[in-house]
Amino acid sequence: MAKKFFIYTFGCRLNQAESNLIRGKLKQQGWQEAAPEEADYIFINSCAVTQKAAKEVAQYVRHCRRHYPQAKIWLLGCFVDSLRVAGRPFDLPADRFLTNKEKRQWIGETIPPAQGRNLLKIQDGCNQFCSYCLVPYLRGRSRSIPVTTILEQARQLEQHGARWLVLTGVDIIQYRDSETGFDFVALVTRLLRKTRLFLSFGSLSPLIGQPRLLPRFLALYHRYPQRLAPHLHLSLQSGSDKILQLMRRPYRQAFYWQTIQKLRAIPRLNLTTDIIVGFPGETDADFQASCDFARRAKFGKIHIFRYSPRPGTLAAKMGPKWGLVPENIKKARAQQLARLEQRLRHQFWQQFLGQKLPVFFFSPHQGQTANFIPIASHHPQLTSQFQLRRLTQISDEKVWLD
């Protein structure tokens, strides 16, 4: 009888991509995916970027042990590495713990299962060491998957039904193939030339605005306007230069502003971002600088994070010296920014009402435009392909079709 498995994924698109690789590996070995109450093995692909994420991982492991006693529980990834970095015991009720390195070794070069839209991992790790971030400690230094491997996986996915490829990693513009010397833009160029897939990207560093990258990147949008998603997620984190310096971000707001002004040459571009509120040292004026920048930039969506100290980072060590922000102020700032975020998001959506946009449906009633506007339809739609549809009405979280 085939073994049955269940995968639960926390965190980023890179984790989602790796979960797809695990799914592909197990299915190639004859395993069957099942509900957790029927599973012989439960694989929890974890996150530890924030205190909230780490707490949710621990709670879910205990939940699975209580409710699914028949299953072997494997805890994988960043939460395990966070315990290792902190020197804490692996005392959760899991049967096996795999660090990110062990997870990568276990997965190998498995081809993910093909579907309409697929995540494809091109890079892992980070060399930046922002003062608040554990990722370089959890995933190590930047490593790039060879161009030949990426092309092989992309072609196989295309042959098996994939239409949309999302390139993902920790910081994908750090991509550099050691054998060919290909950088991120050269890799994207090769994928566009060698496949017919529609491409989009996970989070991009604002350093995409560097002179060695930005002109070539924009040239691809000019040459392949129907093949590249008019959506870019550039993490701002703060609109205050003082806070960006404390965060050890490798840019200042003027550079970010200049970059996005040039990126606006892409028609229908949806520019989205991340902002952290309540970072140590953040004053009311610093927070207002973030709000003011968001208004000027007219972001189509903002992911809002309340700062939480991560053990072992510079910000956790220096926070008391820089000035800790009380939790009630963090919460109030997050709520204020969330209200602004909704207004900006709806303003972005509003300009497309009455227009026909390419919509890709992931289920009969839910989809997404090529520039990442969430779509809902009262009537069943064909899935796993783009359709030109008219946008008619905005609700809180999505836009409806006629």
Biggest β-sheet: strands ordered side by side in the sheet: 2-1-3-4-5
Structural class by helix and strand composition? alpha/beta
Q: What general form does the structure show?
A: globular
| Overall domain count | 4
Mean pLDDT: 95
User: How would a crystallographer describe the biggest sheet?
Assistant: 5 strands, parallel
* Uncertain runs: none
> What value does the Rg take, in angstroms?
21 Å
Number of strands: 18
The share of residues in extended strands comes to 15-25%
Helix segment tally: 13
Tell me the distance between the termini.
48 Å
Which CATH architecture of the largest domain? 2-Layer Sandwich
